[in-house]
Amino acid sequence: MLEHYALIQRLTAKTSNWDQERQVNDFAAELGWRPSDRLQLPASAEFSTGHLIVEHGLEYTAVISFLLHPYRFIDLNPTQQKVLVGASYNNLIDWNISVDYETVSFVYSRYRPPEFHVVRENLSKVNTSVLQRANFRRITSKHPVPDVPPLDQAVIETISIWKRQLVGERPNVSNAALSALFNAILFVRAAEDHKRNGTDLSASSLLLDIASSRETSGAAHIREIIRVAMERLEIKGIPAGLIELDALRVFDDMDDSFTSELLEDFYRNRFARYFEYDFSRMSKHALSRIYEHYVSILRTTPTDQSSFWPRLAETTSERGYGNVYTPEFIARFFARYLRTQLPLRTFQRLEVVDPACGSGVFLRAFLELQNEVLWGTRTTESIRNSFENITGVDVDPNACHAARLSLSLLSLVLLGEFPERLRIITDDFLSYYFQNKSPNQSADVVVANPPYVSFEAQTIEMRSRIGLVLGKDASGKPDLYLAALKIALRLLRPGGYGLFVLPETFLKSDSASGIRELLGKEAWIECVVDLTSIKVFDDVGVYTILLIFQKKSPSTFPNRRPKVVRCQGDVPQALQAVLDDQVVSAGLFTIHEADEVAFSGAEWSLDPPNVSMLLRKYSQLATLEEECTLRQGMNTGADDAFVIEKESLSNLEEECFAPLLVDRDMEAFTVPVTTTKLVFYPFIKGRPLDETTLARKFRATWAHLKEHREQLTNRSAVKRGTLP
Fold this sequence. Notes:
CATH superfamily of the largest domain: Vaccinia Virus protein VP39
CATH architecture of the largest domain: 3-Layer(aba) Sandwich
Structural class: alpha/beta
Number of helices: 28
Number of domains: 4
Distance between the termini: 82 Å
Radius of gyration: 32 Å
Strand content: 15-25%
CATH class of the largest domain: Alpha Beta
C-alpha cells in the first residue's frame, strides 16, 4: 500500500509524463476512484500538473485537478478558476475536485457562478481520507439546488429556441435546411475550439468576427460566414455531405443583427452567462447526450385557424418508424460489457453494426472506449481502423446527419483529422438488409435500440418485409423490432455479440415466441436487465429490458451463467454491478445467475434458479381447467341501471332480467340455488332486443332505464357509436 500523502505531494509537483500517468493510476486505485479519461487543458499548464475524469456507476462524476505547488484553488485568479470549472461544465460534469499540496476544494459548478458552492478540506499525513470516493459521495449528497442548467439542456434549449424563431420567420423552411444550418454551426465551433485548445490561443469568436468584418463580399450571409470560417480554420478532408452550404441559401436574406444574435448564442451560454461553450470538450464526452435530443424535428402544427402572428414551431420527435433515443449510460454499459469479455486487442478491432443508429450514441460509445487514452495502446492506424469498422443505418436523414457530425468531431478530437469514410447510411434497415446480397456473418457486434412498430401501425410493405425476414419464426402479429433481432443473428459471425434495448413484451408475447426460441437455439443468453419499473425513455410509455447474447459456434461455450437483473431504481449502479460481476440479493436492484435452460425454449424465465425449479415442478401437474369448468365473470359498466334487487322485479318485466351471482354470494364448490340480485339481459330466445322493441313491449323496464339516461348516454362505447 502506497503512502497516500506522499503520492499527493508528487502529483502536485513537476514530474515526467510517464511518472505522472502511473501515479495518477495509483491515486485512483488507492483512494477508490474509477478513472475514465485523462483531460488535456493547455490553458491550465501554468498552474496544474494534470486532470483526471472519474466516474461512478457509469456516469461521469468529477474532474480531479492536481494543482502545481504552491497554487491553491482559493488563490487562483477568476480566469484560472474558470478554466477548471468550465472544463468540468463542458464535459457535462458538475464537480471539480482541485487537489493542492495541503487542501482539497470540492467545487460544485452549477450554483451561483463565479462564487460556486465550495467545500474545503485540509490534507495531512494523518488525514488523506477526505480524498476517498466515499467522502466525495457524502459531500455531493448535500449540495444546494442548482440555479444553472446542465450543458446538454442549455445547448438543446438554445437550438430549440432558434429553430422556433427561424420557422417563425420562414414558415416554409425545411427540416433539412434547419438541420444543415445547425450542423454547420456546431461543426465550425468544434473545429475552432479544437484548434484553439491545441495551440493555446486566446479565446476568440471566429464566426462573429467574420460577420462583423464583412469578409463575405459585403453581405453577412450565414452561408458565406460558414465558408470563410472553414477557410480560416484550414479545414481539410471533410467527409462528403457533412456540411451542405447550398442548403443554407434559404437563409441568405436573414437580417444581419438576427444572424449575429444567433451565432453569439453558440459562444456564450444564454442560460448561464458565466460559461463559454467549448465544443471541443463537448466533442469527447457531452455530444452523445446532446445529439440524442438534437435530432428532434421542429414542425408547425397544421391548423385552419387564421392568426395575425405566425405560429411557433413545436419540438417533436419523428416516431413514424418507432424512433426512441437512448440514454447514454445504456450505450456505455453495452460497450463496457464487451470490454470485460474480450481481450483489449480484439475489442479494439471489433466490426460494429447499428441497424437503427439514430444520432450514433452506440457507435460513439464503442469508438470512445476502443480509443480510450488510458489503454495506452492507441496508434494513428488503430484509431483510423476503428472508424472504418463501424456501420450505422437509420431511416431518418436528420439523425444520420447528426451521427456523421458527432463521429467526425470525435475523430477530430482523437486524431486531429476527419475520417476518410463513415458508413452512416440513410435507409430503412429492412430495405438495406435486402439490398445487400451477402450480409450474413459480416459483423462482430450488432447493437441497437430498434424501432418498436406494432402490427397495426405498420404499412403493408413493412408487414411484407417483416414476414420475409421472420419466415417460419413469425407468429401472431409481429412487431418490427423482431425483424431486427432476426437480422442481427444473420449478421453476426459465430462468437459475435448482440446487444439490444427491447420492449418488455418480448419476454411474454406470443408474437415473439418464435424469435425467443430461435435465440435459445442459436445464441447463449448472457444478460437480461429488467427495467420495467423504471422510466427509461422520456415521454414514451414503454416498459424496457436490455438483452445481451452471444451467437453460438462450434468452438465457443458460455463462459458464465446468464445474469438476470431486476431494477427498481439506481440503474447506472445496477449496470456497473453487472460489469463488476456481482450477485446482489437486496436493495433497489437484485442480480442473480440463472440456468441456461431458462432461455432454451419459447418460454423464458427470469426467476432465480430455486424459483424456476419449483415452477417447473408445478408445470408437470394437472392444470385447473382439467379439473374444473371455468366460466368468465361479467362487468355491466353501469350497475345502478342494470343490476336490481330481486324484490324490485315485481315492478318490471321478468323476461328482461336474469339471475346474477355476485362475488359476495358465491360459495365454495357449489352454486347457490337462488340469488339476491338480477341483471338486465336484453335477449329473447337468444336474439338481442333493440331500443324500439324494448320501449314498445317492455314499458316498465324502458322507464327504469330512462331514469339513468344521462349515465348510459355518457358511456364511451355509446359515444363512439359501437353500443346503443
